[in-house]
Design a protein that fits this description.
- The protein has 13 helices and no strands.
- Helix content is 80%, strand content 0%.
- 43% of the residues are buried.
- Helix 3 crosses helix 10, helix 7 packs antiparallel against helix 13 and helix 11 crosses helix 13.
Length: 329
């Protein structure tokens, strides 16, 4: 049964998933612990950390828009390859910045550059899924890559939780190494994939933000934006809240993200298949309700056990939200 399922999709989808897995491990080894480093090691107040990640989110959003357009113009393969190799360099640079105690502003600027490069990689990789999977199977295709990506999220924070207790700098060396592996996989195995947008009329960057003939996608984007204002609290703000204010260890924090990744890996495809006849908008609404319940639990939590329960609920919401959101887009 598993063999038949694997054969039912283009083998390059699985190769893309492998590259995505390696990239995900590299990203998740370090990212959940950045806010803790800023606060506990550099003494940056939580309000400033929040402003930093807010600014980073705005910059990443803009980069995503242009990254998607660039992937249509110069090709998914080229933009993914360029982004990943440049991210290897910036991860090494961040590692040195931490080791050499550059300070908040210099380190923050370097991290934002890395985020921008990641924002170029992500839309191109998402678009490549559409290139490799027939329209009627795209929700399942996105479920597959998301499951594999979250398997990386299961491994990364578990490793990072132990490394962060001794050396924050080493986190980013691992990130660089895993991102390099991702770049090599892409370089060798994903060249020459034909884009479904290959014959489309070239557009200008201004048209990305045009409402003409795009009202539905803008409505969708607005609703997803509102939802992800809450979703985004799961990484940096929660990490800081749980470790520095509620007193859980970095290893325990790593386990929570590992739990999140394992649940997605185990349940994403079965849940996607279970609700495949349900309207995509209904799936999104149900996922938002799970997020509501999960974050409400975090607000009430005072012990590690309740954090575990909350993460399970939030992850179920994740599984309902992500594939239909991408499929609708």
């Amino acid at each position: 049964m598993i063999r038949e399922f694997i054969k039912s999709h283009n083998y390059k989808l699985w190769v893309l998933s492998a590259g995505w897995f390696s990239s995900s491990v590299g990203f998740s080894v370090a990212i959940p612990f950045i806010s803790i480093y800023f606060h506990s090691e550099l003494g940056v107040p939580p309000s400033t950390i929040g402003l930093f990640f807010g600014l980073a989110a705005v910059i990443r959003s803009i980069s995503h828009s242009f990254g998607g357009e660039l992937s249509d113009r110069i090709g998914r393969y080229r933009i993914m390859l360029l982004a990943q190799f440049l991210r290897v360099f910036t991860f090494f640079l961040i590692s040195y910045a931490v080791y050499d105690h550059w300070g908040f502003y210099a380190l923050g600027a370097t991290i934002i550059i890395n985020f921008i490069l990641g924002s170029l990689f992500q839309p191109a990789a998402n678009a490549m899924v559409a290139d490799l999977v027939a329209p009627e199977k795209r929700t399942e295709g996105y479920a597959i890559v998301r499951s594999v990506e979250n398997l990386g999220w299961a491994a990364g924070p578990a490793i990072g939780g132990f490394l962060a207790a001794n050396s924050y700098s080493s986190l980013f060396i691992i990130s660089a190494a895993m991102t390099f592996v991702s770049a090599v996989i892409i370089a060798i195995f994903l060249k020459g994939i034909k884009s479904v947008a290959e014959n489309a009329r070239p557009s200008s960057f201004r048209e990305i933000f045009s409402l003409k003939e795009n009202e539905l996608i803008f409505r969708h984007a607005l609703l997803v934006f509102i939802l992800y204002l809450a979703v985004a609290q799961m990484i940096a703000p929660f990490s800081l809240f749980a470790v520095d204010f509620k007193g859980i260890s970095k290893q325990q924090l790593g386990f929570l993200f590992t739990l999140n990744g394992l649940i997605v890996t185990a349940l994403q495809i079965p849940m996607t298949r279970m609700v495949h006849k349900v309207r995509l908008t209904t799936q999104l609404a149900a996922g938002a309700l799970f997020y509501t319940a999960g974050y409400f639990l975090i607000g009430l939590s005072s012990t590690y056990f309740y954090f575990i329960i909350a993460f399970i609920v939030i992850t179920l919401g994740e599984n309902l939200v992500s594939p239909p959101s991408l499929t609708m887009a």
